[in-house]
Amino acid sequence: MSRRQELPGPKQLGASGMNDTYDIILASSSPRRRELLDQIGVHYVCSPVEVDETPRRGESPEQYVVRLAATKSQSARQAEKTRLPALGADTAVVLAGEIMGKPQGRDHALAMLGRLSGRRHQVMSAVSVRSPQQHWQALNVSMVLFRSIGREEMLAYWATGEPVDKAGAYAIQGLGALFVKHIEGSFSGVVGLPLYETAHLLRKAGVSLLRSESN
Asked: CATH assignment of 10-204, given 3.10.450.50, 3.90.950.10, 3.40.50.2020, 3.40.50.720?
């Protein structure tokens, strides 16, 4: 049974009994993060938020993802009338200290993949969990090594449509896995939500995991 549900609206979300139905507010509509929360049995309600993802002057990639995750959890908490903890997350592909965003078109995607080809890069995923009184954060950094990729392969990959909205122009959980020679760190973190860190923060917020359906 799926744990996911779209946001029923602020009045419904704050209604009596909602805290008994859901564990958290998820400040995202990402299918990948939803699937990962489903994997560990977290009951959530989605409350996507819009944030400015422009890096600040002098901000490191680590500071960038941590700030965005915290901003998302804070925005979700402010928007909803409930005592449920809010979870925000952000992921960035980083090559030689440079944050690689989502491709702006085919040529941009090919340029990204060309730069990643045959090289190591970092994937940084930050998680923020915020209750009405407290805030917890964690950062996961994984290293990914790409094999060499030819131009024809890049063109074929672009034609699948998968790279269009992906940071670094690839998805490790999809066809992009064909390019990954080695990974050091968290696979779920590279997908978009490091589950070890997420579970640790959720426990701090009082969310029970590995419970029976009858509880």
From this structure: 3.90.950.10
